[in-house]
Specification:
This protein has 107 residues and is mostly helical. It has four helices and no strands. It comes from Brassica napus.
């Protein structure tokens, strides 16, 4: 978007202030400097903030829920978290209605 000229970067001072605030917030939350690249629990907020910066829409709520559910399941059991979606049937049905979620072709 920047290279195409559709948007531009904020002023340098504003970007540096944002970086300083980011590191201060991480430090205040007890996040070691070596882990500042890890968006972890804040990934949904990060995605929304990035969308705001670039002018793109926020992720749909079902997509956010699906991501959070998947991450939590992977923390419980990394080997089998993809195998069972029994309690997320409604969420999956909503996801399958989205044409971009799973683009399938028929033979």
């Amino acid at each position: 978007m920047i290279l195409s000229g559709k948007t531009s970067l904020p002023p340098y001072d504003e970007m540096m202030q944002s970086v300083a605030e980011f590191y201060c917030a991480k430090e205040a939350n007890g996040v070691p400097k070596r882990n500042t690249h890890d968006i972890g629990r804040d990934f949904v907020t990060y995605c929304d903030k990035y969308a705001d910066y670039t002018g793109y829409p926020h992720l749909e709520e079902w997509r956010k829920k699906l991501c959070v559910t998947t991450i939590l399941r992977s923390l419980d059991n990394l080997e089998t978290y993809r195998d069972s979606w029994d309690d997320d049937h409604e969420l999956l049905q909503e996801a399958l209605q989205d044409p971009y979620f799973a683009q399938r072709t028929t033979p």
